[in-house]
Amino acid sequence: MSQSYGQLTALALDPIEKKPLYRFHPGSQILSAGSFGCNMACPFCQNFQIAEGRPGAIDTRTVSPEALVDIALSLEPRGNIGAAFTYNEPMIGFEYVRDAAKLLKAQGMHTAVVTNGCVEPWVLQEVLPYVDAFNVDLKCFTQEGYRALGGDLSLVKHFIQTAAASAHVEVTTLIVPGMNDTEAELRQMTQWLSSLSPDIPYHLSRFFPHKTMQTTPPTDTTLLYHLAEVAKQYLRYVYLGNV
User: Fold this and answer.
1) SS3 category, 32
2) What is the pTM assigned to this prediction?
3) Distance (Å, rounded) from C-alpha 239 to C-alpha 116?
4) How far apart are alpha carbons 200 and 215 in whole angstroms?
């Protein structure tokens, strides 16, 4: 069992569009739960304080799976439909996701996971029967790019393909200047997603300086709009974020 089991750094009721999930119960609210830790090391991470958190070195509150369900149910009058595991990388603590999602499902509530998708297939299988929706962060489309971030493109592609076969899946790419901002790479990425299903919602997000990339300029909006038009050649639902 992971050291982060039941240890939450953040708990908030969010619009589901913030995950971002645009085509899964749009207009609803979802209880968002975050722990700490991550299995990648992105220099542009927006939540690096908790992603790099370690046991005993970060403030947490203990929330058992049963307690999380109770909180989620208490928020139903405010439009809550369930719980989303997000903010840090939830799949490194898949045991908590699995246990809580199973209980939520038994109560008729929905579950979502916001993830980098960079986990072994057996880990995905542990949670897949109990999760209704995923947003997967597809960071780039080269093995070299993923290696630089401490990840593995083949694992992420397998995750997306497997999850999309049995759950609602949306995909997000943060367009980082100098890393993944070429039309050729974006075209390869969206062609591959379309081969799974042209109905997979795809989010292109604008980069802003963060963490160790403070001197990198924000993504050029003209480029972002152009890449969105390229994506629309292959995917039906393309959205822009942070613009």
Assistant:
1) strand
2) 0.96
3) 19
4) 33
For residue 4 the two structure tokens come to: 């982060």
Burial (CB count <10 Å: 0-12, 13-18, 19+), residue 136: buried
Q: What tokens does 66 get?
A: 């049963």
DSSP state of 12: E
How does pLDDT run across 73-83, given as a tens digit for each residue? 999 999 999 99
Residue type, 114: V
- C-beta of residue 118 within 8 angstroms of C-beta of residue 159: yes
Separation between Cα atoms, residue 130 and residue 213, nearest integer Å: 37
Bridge partners of 110?
82
Residue 212, phi then psi, degrees to nearest 5: -95, 10
Residue whose pair of structure tokens reads 């139903």 in the numeric block: 76
- Condensed to tens digits (0 to 9), the pLDDT of residues 155-183 reads 999 999 999 999 999 999 999 999 999 99
DSSP 26: T
Q: Say which residues have a Cβ less than 8 Å from residue 66's Cβ, sequence separation at least 6.
A: 103
Q: Position of tokens 């909006």?
A: 221
| DSSP labels, 124-162 | HHHHGGG--EEEEE---S-HHHHHHTT--HHHHHHHHHH
- Among 146, 220, 137, 153, smallest CA distance to 181 is for 220
Task: Establish how many alpha carbons lie within 13 A of residue 125's alpha carbon, considering only the half-sphere containing its beta carbon.
Answer: 4
- Write out the two tokens for 240: 């822009």
Minimal CA–CA distance to 208: which of 198, 217, 220, 196? 217
Q: Which residues contact 169 (CB under 8 A, 6 or more apart)?
A: 133, 134, 135, 136, 160, 163, 200
